[in-house]
Amino acid sequence: MVALAVLGLAVVGAMVLVIPYELRAHPGAVPVNSVVKGFKGNSSSAGGRLAFALPQQGVYVVKGRGSEQINVPPNSQRDGATMPASVTYVKHGCWRWRVDYNVAHWEAYNFCPTSANLLEGAEVNWQSWDFGTVKVTNLEQVTCRPPAVVVPGTPRPGQTFRWTCAGANTAVSGTTRQQVVVHLVGTTNLVIGGKATPTVHEVLDTSLSGVQHGSVTENWWFSRTSGLPVKMTRTVVINSTSPIGTVTYHEDGSWQMASLDPK
């Protein structure tokens, strides 16, 4: 009788954990109109002769696909087919590019045009995971010192750039070091919103070490005139040590702008 009672409690306990997990919410797409409604622009302090013109502030529409998975405990989520991406002017003549993959995942970059190049000084990545009985969020902040050359003012096929960046996560204690190698593939025209748009195509290979280790491979297409990202593909594999063993995070996806005219 005691054994049966203990078994019954174990079954009930397992159901308390499993049922909310099976009924957990799966994040959906971020409505573009809600981002447009809440968007607030800023004045820019950019001045002088710049290698890249400032892109227009506002909310852009990108079309794409993508997914993110973790192995322990197993969970996954998908990107929206339509995603809002915004440009906001920030301090020091820079501008922030943010894309909302879904309601539980967004990523932002600070780009800074100079007289010679387009630089990146910081990156922020936010995610939330629903496990039924508990939700886990993580904010990753990455800084590159000195600011990395993202797009040269005079791009040439075959050029190579190297960055050194450091990342800190709210869910993982310690620092992740990033070694980035940028290969400039060349210049090409992409059709964006029915218009031929001159772009610079680059491949970024990132190696991670420290409290997290893994690799990131990305293809980026930047507007030749403004440096605005107009297309991207990504494959991400990151391993993190945890009390329950190594947690592997995998992400892949792609997106392309539907129009160069912001809402």
Summarize the structure in words.
This protein is mainly beta. It has a single domain, classed as YmcC-like fold (Beta Barrel). Helix content is 11%, strand content 60%. The protein is built from two helices and 13 strands. The protein has a twelve-stranded antiparallel beta barrel with strand order 1-3-4-5-6-7-8-9-10-11-12-13. The chain starts with a helix and ends in a 6-residue tail after the last strand.
Question: What is the percentage of strand-forming residues?
Answer: over 45%
CATH architecture: Beta Barrel
Q: Into which percent range does the helicity of residues fall? A: 10-25%
Strand elements, count:
13
CATH topology (level 3) name: YmcC-like fold
Order of helices and strands: HHEEEEEEEEEEEEE
Rough outline: globular
Secondary-structure-based class equals mainly beta
Give unreliable regions as ranges. 4-19
CATH class descriptor name: Mainly Beta
**Largest sheet descriptor:** 12 strands, antiparallel, barrel
List the domain count as a whole number. 1
Total of DSSP H or I helical runs spanning 4+ residues: 2
| Overall mean pLDDT | 90
**Strand order, largest beta sheet:** 1-3-4-5-6-7-8-9-10-11-12-13
Cα separation of the termini: 68 Å
List keywords for this structure.
single chain; 263 residues; mainly beta; YmcC-like fold; globular
In short:
The chain has 263 residues and is mainly beta. It has a single domain, classed as Beta Barrel (YmcC-like fold).
Give the secondary structure arrangement, pairings included.
Layout: H1 2-22, H2 32-38, E1 58-71, E2 74-78, E3 82-89, E4 95-102, E5 105-113, E6 117-130, E7 135-152, E8 160-169, E9 175-192, E10 195-210, E11 212-223, E12 229-242, E13 245-257
Antiparallel strand pairs: 1-2, 1-3, 1-13, 3-4, 4-5, 5-6, 6-7, 7-8, 8-9, 9-10, 10-11, 11-12, 12-13
